[in-house]
């Protein structure tokens, strides 16, 4: 079928919205009609050429929500008409990682996904006979996409698509960092460094876990106001004195019980660790640093009881847990609307990147209808 999609032709250049060919879903695959898609920093990172593992031509986009149009042989968990969230982090429910509660990192299709292929090693996207690769197994900057069944979460059809899309990446990552990775305990003190999508999600996650005090650190007053709306009790303007301010605000200047880093900046990762409480403080790193960057840690911080944990997609097992998070939003526990700063069309996808680089808002969402 012919579809319109935003194609990365050359790194560092604007995406080209054009007509491409999309083949029928094969066994274990699903055709999805996209209704909404968030413009995420990971898309921009790849488009810029900064990601050494990036490839072109490719259809970018991964934070999507839509409706199942057709299923391939053997697909049983979704059917035409179902509302779904796209998952860059799949869940086969069978591999050694999927059956272990300690991780959400499914290994079933990881190798081919990293190459821009679907699980059988081929692609469904093309143009004039030339293959176009899939991005993060999703390619949601398009009217339609074909994805593996194991990379789709069936969600409540009552949830608005523009809200649901954000659970495909950023919002679930932040919420899950607090709920799954850190497992924040009620009555504790948390400090979140960064008030973008992931950081604000972490603030909301700490609130849902019953944290007594939630300190949010960011350079933007506007974002800190949004953090208050998600449950932050205190805010701090970021900078070199942020750690000292967090320590001064916590019991006996020992630090926060839980800290979260959501910027991808290694200097801020170090601040988050230094702000964690001596003896039992846990620092959860959810931001993605640049290729080759390293985190400089003073060993004494760890010897005196602080710990560091990494969190990919918030430890969320997508097919099982994303529907639960969407239901919690429908129940009023998570306020999704403030995260949506701009609504744009597919033709305006490059404007979404421009808004992100200008730090204008939290998330631009592409609406297809």
Question: What would the CATH topology of the largest domain be?
Answer: Quinone Oxidoreductase, Chain A, domain 1
Our count of helices gives 11
Mind describing the biggest β-sheet? 7 strands, mixed
**Range of strand content:** 25-35%
> What is the percent of helical residues?
25-40%
3D shape: globular
Helix and strand composition category: alpha/beta
- What is the CATH architecture term of the largest domain? Alpha-Beta Complex
What is the H/E string? EEEHEEEHEEEEHHEHEHEHEHEHEHEHE
Q: What is the radius of gyration computed over CA atoms, rounded to a whole number of angstroms?
A: 20 Å
Question: Care to describe what's here?
Answer:
By secondary structure, this protein is of the alpha/beta class. The protein folds into 2 domains: 2-168 and 335-367, Quinone Oxidoreductase, Chain A, domain 1 (Alpha-Beta Complex); 173-312, NAD(P)-binding Rossmann-like Domain (Rossmann fold, 3-Layer(aba) Sandwich), CATH 3.40.50.720. It is 26% helix and 25% strand. The chain has 11 helices and 18 strands. The chain has helices spanning 41-48, 110-114, 161-164, 170-181, 197-208, 221-230, 242-249, 266-274, 299-303, 318-330, 349-357; strands at 2-8, 16-22, 29-38, 58-59, 63-71, 83-86, 125-127, 130-134, 144-148, 152-155, 189-193, 213-218, 234-237, 258-261, 282-285, 307-310, 340-344, 363-367. Strands 3, 5, 6, 9, 10, 17 and 18 form a 7-stranded mixed beta sheet that branches. Strands 13-12-11-14-15-16 form a 6-stranded parallel beta sheet, with helices on both faces. A 5-stranded mixed barrel has the order 1-2-7-8-4. β15, α9 (299-303) and β16 form a beta-alpha-beta unit. α4 (170-181) runs parallel beside α5 (197-208). The two termini are 19 Å apart.
């Amino acid at each position: 079928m012919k579809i319109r999609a935003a194609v990365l032709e050359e790194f560092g250049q604007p995406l080209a919205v054009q007509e491409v060919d999309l083949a029928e879903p094969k066994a274990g695959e699903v055709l999805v009609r996209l209704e909404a898609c968030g413009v995420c920093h990971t898309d921009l990172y790849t488009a810029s050429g900064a990601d050494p593992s990036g490839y072109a031509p490719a259809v970018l986009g991964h934070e999507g929500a839509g409706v199942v149009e057709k299923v391939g042989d053997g697909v049983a968990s979704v059917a035409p008409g179902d509302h779904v969230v796209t998952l860059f982090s799949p869940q086969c429910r069978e591999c050694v990682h999927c059956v272990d509660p300690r991780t959400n990192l499914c290994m079933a299709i990881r190798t081919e996904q990293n190459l821009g292929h679907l699980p059988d090693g081929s692609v469904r996207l093309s143009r004039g006979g030339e293959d176009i690769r899939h991005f993060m197994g999703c390619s949601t900057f398009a009217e339609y996409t074909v994805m593996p069944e194991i990379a789709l979460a069936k969600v409540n059809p009552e949830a608005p698509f523009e809200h649901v899309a954000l659970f495909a990446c950023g919002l679930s990552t932040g919420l899950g960092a607090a709920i799954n990775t850190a497992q924040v305990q009620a009555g504790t003190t948390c400090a979140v460094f960064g008030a973008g999508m992931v950081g604000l999600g972490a603030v909301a996650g700490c609130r849902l876990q019953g944290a007594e005090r939630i300190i949010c650190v960011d350079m933007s007053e506007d974002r800190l106001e949004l953090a208050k709306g998600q449950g932050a009790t205190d805010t701090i303007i970021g900078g070199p004195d942020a750690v000292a301010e967090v320590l001064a605000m916590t019991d006996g200047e020992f630090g926060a019980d839980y800290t979260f880093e959501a910027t991808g900046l290694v200097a801020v990762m170090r601040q988050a660790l230094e702000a964690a409480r001596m003896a039992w403080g846990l620092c959860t790193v959810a931001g993605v640093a640049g290729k080759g960057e390293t985190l400089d840690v003073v060993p004494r911080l760890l010897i005196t009881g602080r710990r560091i944990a990494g969190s990919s997609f918030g430890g969320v097992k997508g097919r099982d847990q994303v529907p639960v998070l969407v239901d919690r939003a429908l129940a009023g526990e998570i306020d999704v609307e403030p995260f949506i700063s701009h609504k744009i069309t597919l033709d305006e996808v490059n404007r979404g990147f421009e808004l992100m680089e200008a730090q204008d808002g939290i998330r631009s969402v592409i609406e297809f209808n």
